[in-house]
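Handout, section B. The chain below has 174 residues.
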Amino acid sequence: MTKMTNRPSDPLEFETVYKEINRIAEEDALFSIDVGDNIINSFRYLHLTPKNKWTISALFASMGYGVPGSLAGALSFPERQIFNISGDGAFSMVMQDIITQKKYNLPVINIITSNASLNFIKPEQDNLPIPDHSGIFIEDQDFAMIARGMGVEAVTVTKSDDLPAAFDKAVEVT
């Protein structure tokens, strides 16, 4: 796992993203983790401690859980560092709530991983007797541009070498 988190990648791979989250996360940070691959990756790569709080929607697998979970976390624990970790599919469902973060000045660090698909569903469809995948590929979009349009500072990162500066900026602005 250490080898994977330390490898440079272009295009960006998710393991190095978690390395940066761990680097900047305070020991009592709160994580709202959206469903899908991010739950599995968070369990594998986040360095959670007994002081952390984290929340997921495991029972119902409700896509779009990360943003509202982070809003609730920021309102319930205003003194703590808050992260939302979402995939592109889940974030697309609720990204309009970033304006709520802006309106109430909630200092959430939003991390959106993007692979232009509902990747967690793909293996399920691979097990079905159908020739093609159905409804799992989504259009890639620039979430940072969307966030900036809502008045939220944001950056798109595509190379692992650009991650440290982006995460340092996230800490600075929150």
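Note. The chain has a mean pLDDT of 90. Compare this with the example in section A.
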